[in-house]
Amino acid sequence: MTGLQRAGRWIGDHLVMAAGALVLVYMFVPIAVVMLMSFNDNSKSRNVYAFQSFTLDNWANPCKPDGMCAAVVRSVEIGLLATVVATILGTLAAFALVRHSFAGRSAINTIIFLPMASPEIVMGSSLLALFVSAGFGGRLGFWTIFIAHVMFCLSFVIVTVKARLAGLDENLEQAAMDLYANEATTFWRITFPLVFPGIAAAALLSFSLSFDDFIITNLNAGQTVTFPMFVWGVSQRGIPMQVNVVGTAMFLISMFLVLGNMLATRKPKPVA
């Protein structure tokens, strides 16, 4: 084998790994920048996008910018409420679509994807027209945002839980019922624990979508300000470093929940 052939073989063997490493770098560099800027002391410079010096003051005083913590709390409240409602309704809908046959099921399976495929500006303006025509034009705020978020989170919950249910081995449920377990016991002891990772993933996805949403929220918020709207507003004057603190905290909490879910659902190694 010549040197050129050995070089070509080495490149072929490591090309996939190198491509994967580049994709990971591309994905995580923005997050690393946000984490770094959360420790940035920009009090002596107007350039908020360049690292000046290290400080813990941003983490010690996260509510220093006026209105930021209130906007974060409002986004968390809306996100949690929308997640709970969308997860319950979406899980029930997923069970109905997977476990029951009824007229129009195929059409519903297709229609479910429409909110996911629709541009947010179209969905937001449609919801605004709906609220105004229903007489809520002067009362847009917390609850209209909540209704909008539940609406677009439902599709993601249904699709995620459906995927988990479709891969569920029904022989396990039949085996439990052969051992004289009734339907309720079979559901809570067999079905629900097996489907729970999908439900948890759908709930995490719903909260992230709700907390992060700007376009639909901005069209249906009235005078209510959520965290993305606060960031958009202050960006005209320069983003305070505490915004990076909130972003870093949300990322760390998400990582903690994902790792906790992985550890909780990890199968124990068989004893030799």
Q: Count of DSSP helices?
A: 12
Q: Which range does the strand content fall in?
A: under 5%
How many strands, which pairing sense, and closed or not: the largest β-sheet?
none
The overall strand count is 0
Mean pLDDT over the residues? 88
- Spell out the helices and strands N to C: HHHHHHHHHHHH
The best one-word shape is globular
What is the helix fraction of residues, given as a range? Answer: over 70%
Q: What are the salient characteristics of this protein?
A:
single chain; 272 residues; mainly alpha; 12 helices; globular
Question: Care to describe what's here?
Answer:
The chain is mainly alpha-helical and 272 residues long. Helix content is 73%, strand content 0%. The protein has twelve helices and no strands. The protein has helices spanning 3-37, 57-60, 68-99, 105-111, 114-117, 120-133, 142-166, 170-178, 183-212, 215-220, 227-234, 242-265. Helix 3 runs antiparallel to helix 9. The mean pLDDT is 88.
SSE layout and pairing:
Layout: H1 3-37, H2 57-60, H3 68-99, H4 105-111, H5 114-117, H6 120-133, H7 142-166, H8 170-178, H9 183-212, H10 215-220, H11 227-234, H12 242-265
Helix pairs in contact: 1-12, 3-7, 3-9, 3-11, 7-9, 8-9, 9-12
